[in-house]
């Protein structure tokens, strides 16, 4: 093999290698441009303005307890009885098409019927928040609702929403916290 043939063969290989590397680089660049499926929306930001939407109790516990921890308060745990009472209250708010004192009275009656001491109980009844994060933010920013989520004696909670399309607030909320 002549020196000229060897040089031609090395040049040819080099061109092929360069083309291959350039192609790989181009494909890698294109891969960065391809749209990948978006990561799922965190549960606290999911809209509850849908039939069958349910508040995630663990996500609610995370939000409530993070806030309580900043205030030096003990954590509170989800409670099925309080969740059921909150769900009934949220549905009633949606049926009435507004948050009102009558539902608050019904919550107290439901607590008594479930043998839950009302000595250390508080509740937030509201409407118009579409996500758990929105509801929590609204409650945190209002003095009366802030007192509920920061009730020092609280050890447990129940939270629920009810969807009422075409109503004044669309999504209605009930949070019930209670002590031991």
Please give the structural blueprint.
Layout: H1 3-33, H2 57-70, E1 77-78, H3 80-96, H4 101-113, E2 121-127, H5 132-140, H6 143-149, E3 156-163, E4 171-178
Parallel strand pairs: 1-3
Antiparallel strand pairs: 2-4, 3-4
Helix pairs in contact: 3-4
Description:
The structure is a single chain. By secondary structure, the protein is α+β, with helices and mostly antiparallel strands. 51% of the residues lie in helices and 14% in strands. The protein has a four-stranded mixed sheet, with helices on both faces. The longest helix has 31 residues, at 3-33. The chain is globular and about 85 Å long. The protein starts with a helix and ends with a strand.
Proportion of helical residues = 40-55%
> How far apart are the first and last residues' alpha carbons, in Å?
94 Å
Structural class, from secondary structure content?
alpha+beta
Global shape: globular
What is the tally of beta strands?
4
Number of helices: 6
Averaged pLDDT: 85
> What is Rg?
29 Å
Oligomeric description of these chains: single chain
Main sheet? 4 strands, mixed
Unreliable stretches = 5-11, 24-31
Which sequence of strands runs across the widest sheet? 1-3-4-2
């Amino acid at each position: 093999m002549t020196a000229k043939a060897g040089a031609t063969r090395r040049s040819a290989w080099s061109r092929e290698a360069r083309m291959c590397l350039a192609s790989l680089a181009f494909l890698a660049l294109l891969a960065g441009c391809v749209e990948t499926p978006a990561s799922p929306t965190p549960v606290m930001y999911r809209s509850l303005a849908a039939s069958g939407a349910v508040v995630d109790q663990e996500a609610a516990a995370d939000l409530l307890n993070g806030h309580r921890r900043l205030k030096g308060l003990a954590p509170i745990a989800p409670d099925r009885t309080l969740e059921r009472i909150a769900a009934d209250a949220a549905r009633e708010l949606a049926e009435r098409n507004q948050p009102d004192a009558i539902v608050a009275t019904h919550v107290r009656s439901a607590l008594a019927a479930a043998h839950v001491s009302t000595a250390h109980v508080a509740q937030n009844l509201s409407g118009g928040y579409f996500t758990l994060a929105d509801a929590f933010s609204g409650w945190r920013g209002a003095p009366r609702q802030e007192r509920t989520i920061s009730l020092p004696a609280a050890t447990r909670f129940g939270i629920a929403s009810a969807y009422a399309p075409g109503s004044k607030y669309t999504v209605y909320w009930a949070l019930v916290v209670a002590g031991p």
